[in-house]
Specification:
Strand content: under 5%
Distance between the termini: 65 Å
Oligomer: single chain
Largest sheet: none
Number of strands: 0
Length: 331
DNA sequence: AAGCGGAACAACCGCATCCAC
DNA sequence: GGTGGATGCGGTTGTTCCGCT
C-alpha cells in the first residue's frame, strides 16, 4: 500500500499535540477554502503538519458540529446496540450518533462501555454471556464456587436472593450449564462431590435444566432424582431468551449436528442442549465472526438490536420483579 | 506535598479501499 | 486491467489528568 508521500521532508513535520495557533490556522483555512486536498492543505495553510494529521485534527476535534461532553444513556445504548451488530465499525456506528466521532466512540467504548458489559457478565465482543475457554479446565474451582453459592442459599430465600443473586452468580450457574452441555466430559469427581454435599438447592437448579438431566443419566451417581416439576421448569429464568430468538434475525452458522425431528441442537452427550441456553461462545473475535449477521436488517430498525442476550440480561438485572423468578425457581 | 497508578483521551501508524488516469 | 495517489478506518501509543496513599 502507498503511504502518504509527503510534499516536504517528513522528519521536519511536527507531531504531537496541536497548539491553539495551529488550530486557528487550520480553522481559518478550512472556513475560507474548505479542506480540498488534505495533502496540499498543510502547505497552503502554513502548517508544518502532514495532511493526515490535519484531517484527523479537523474531523475529530475542530469541526464545528462536534458534540462535546458525556455520552447520554441513550447514546450509550445506541453504541452498544449497534456494536452488537456492526462490531468495531466505529465510523458506521458514528453515523448513528450525530456530532460524535468514530474516535470518540471508540475511546468511550474501550474505557467505559467495555468494562460496563464485563461487569454485567457480558462478553463485549460477542455480546453474549461471558464464557472462558479456561472454564473447562477450571471446572473444579467453578463447582466449588457454585457450592459456596448454594450454601449462601440456605439462608432465608427472600433475603438471600436480594443480597446474593447478582449477575456474577447468574453467570457462574450459566457457565456451569454451558460446560455441562458443551464441553468434553466434565470432572465427574468434582460433580459428585458437589452433589454429595447438602447443596440440594443448587442441585435442583441444575437438574431442572435438561442438560444436567442428561448428564445424570450418563453418570448415574445414586442421588435421588425426582421428576422434574414442569411448572417449576416453566418458571425457570430463561437468561438467554430474547423476545425473538437471535438466530431468527441473524442466521448463525453452526457445525453442530442437529436432530432429525427439529432444529434443536444436539450436544456431544447425545441429549439436547437446552434451548433455554445459548451455545458456548468463545470470547475470541475469530469465533464471533462465525456469526452471519446482516447489518442492514438492524440499521433500518435499531430497536431490533435489543432482542438479544444483552437485553435479556439487562432486563434481568434491572427488573426488581426478577426476584420473583428466583423465588419461584427455588421454591 | 510528593509519588504513584490507573483512567481518559488525543494523536499517530499502518493497512484497506476508493478512484482517477 | 494495472498503477499510484488520496482518503478512510481501526488498532495502538503517548500524554495528561486525577484520585489515592
Amino acid at each position: 500500500m502507498m503511504a502518504e508521500s509527503p510534499l516536504q521532508d517528513e522528519s521536519a513535520l511536527k507531531k504531537g499535540p496541536w497548539t491553539p495557533e495551529e488550530d486557528q490556522k487550520l480553522i481559518d483555512y478550512i472556513q475560507k477554502h474548505g479542506h480540498g486536498s488534505w495533502r496540499a492543505l498543510p502547505m497552503l495553510a502554513g502548517l508544518n503538519r502532514c495532511g493526515k494529521s490535519c484531517r484527523l485534527r479537523w474531523t475529530n476535534y475542530l469541526r464545528p458540529d462536534i458534540k462535546r461532553g458525556n455520552f447520554s444513556e441513550e447514546e450509550q445504548q445506541i453504541i452498544i446496540d449497534f456494536h452488537q451488530v456492526l462490531g468495531n465499525k466505529w465510523s458506521a456506528i458514528a453515523q448513528h450518533l450525530p456530532g460524535r466521532t468514530d474516535n470518540e466512540i471508540k475511546n468511550f467504548w474501550n474505557t467505559h462501555l467495555k468494562k460496563k458489559l464485563l461487569q454485567m457478565g457480558i462478553d463485549p465482543v460477542t455480546h453474549r454471556p461471558r464464557t472462558d475457554l479456561n472454564i473447562i479446565t477450571n471446572l473444579p474451582q467453578l463447582l466449588a464456587a457454585a457450592a459456596n453459592f448454594s450454601n449462601l442459599m440456605n439462608i432465608p430465600w427472600d433475603n438471600a436472593i436480594k443480597a446474593q443473586v447478582d449477575a456474577t452468580k447468574l453467570q457462574l450457574l450459566h457457565n456451569i450449564l454451558q460446560v455441562l452441555g458443551n464441553s468434553p466430559p466434565p470432572n465427574m469427581e468434582a460433580l459428585s462431590n458437589l452433589f454429595a454435599s447438602r447443596d440440594h438447592q443448587l442441585y435442583e437448579y441444575l437438574r431442572m435444566n435438561s442438560q444436567l438431566e442428561g448428564l445424570l443419566k450418563c453418570g448415574e451417581d445414586g442421588l435421588s432424582s425426582q421428576g422434574v416439576n414442569a411448572q417449576a421448569q416453566s418458571n425457570y429464568p430463561n437468561i438467554d431468551a430474547p423476545q425473538q430468538p437471535f438466530s431468527d434475525h441473524y442466521p448463525i452458522k453452526d457445525s453442530k449436528p442437529r436432530s432429525h425431528n427439529s432444529d434443536q441442537l444436539v450436544s456431544s452427550y447425545g441429549f439436547p442442549t437446552s434451548n433455554t441456553l445459548p451455545q458456548l461462545v468463545s470470547a475470541s473475535p475469530e469465533c464471533s465472526s462465525a456469526n452471519t449477521i446482516n447489518p442492514n436488517d438492524i440499521i433500518s430498525n435499531p430497536s431490533n438490536a435489543t432482542s438479544t442476550t444483552f437485553e435479556a440480561w439487562r432486563n434481568l438485572m434491572d427488573d426488581g420483579a426478577n426476584d420473583n423468578y428466583w423465588i419461584d425457581i427455588i421454591e
